[in-house]
Amino acid sequence: MSLDTPQAEAHPERLTAHEARRRLEDERASRLEQLQAVEEAGAAAGEQVMSAQKDTIRRVLAEVEAAFARVQDGTYGSCRGCSRAIPVERLEILPYTSYCVPCQHAAG
Predict the structure, then answer these.
(1) What tens digit of pLDDT does each residue of 58-106 get?
(2) Cβ pair 48, 56 in contact under 8 A
(3) Residues 97, 78: Cα–Cα separation, whole Å
(4) What is the DSSP string of 65-100?
(5) Nearest Cα residue to 61 out of 37, 96, 90
(6) Could you tell me the CA-to-CA distances from 73 to 9, 14, 23, 64, 94 in Å, in that order?
(7) What is the DSSP letter of 6?
(8) Cα–Cα dist 30/7, whole Å
(9) What is the mean pLDDT of residues 32-54?
(10) 94: closest CA among 1, 41, 42, 23?
């Protein structure tokens, strides 16, 4: 099943390109809201903690943008470690992931 094939079964092997983009757009919007909230909290919170939160949010945003590129080039949903399909359940939880669970654990 390709990313552009309509989902006909209850638990498809892969997300459609449309569904992947929707999930990634939701993830991006959520992270941008988090980043704005952290920035608005300003000096009230410790600068070191704020900086770490911003770095984490920016890292995830970069991963989301990379996932959009994978949707565009047709590699979205394929593990970068073993090249097998990433289970759709994992992509529903982490739509920007580029590794299956075993390869993610191996990567550390």
Answers:
(1) 999 999 999 999 999 999 999 999 999 999 999 999 999 999 999 999 9
(2) no
(3) 10
(4) HHHHHHHHHT-TTB-TTT-SBPPHHHHHH-TT--S-
(5) 96
(6) 25, 15, 17, 14, 19
(7) P
(8) 26
(9) 75
(10) 23
Distance in angstroms (rounded) separating the CA atoms of residues 101 and 24? 19
Q: Give the CB-side neighbour count of residue 66, counting CA atoms within 13 A.
A: 12
Give me the half-sphere count of Cα atoms (radius 13 Å) on the Cβ side of residue 82. Answer: 13
With b for 16 or more beta-carbon neighbours within 10 A and e for fewer, the 79-95 pattern comes to bebeeeebbbebbeebb
CA distance 74 to 77: 9
Instruction: Provide the strand spans (E) within 7-55.
Output: none
Beta bridge partners of 46: none
pLDDT at 7: 43
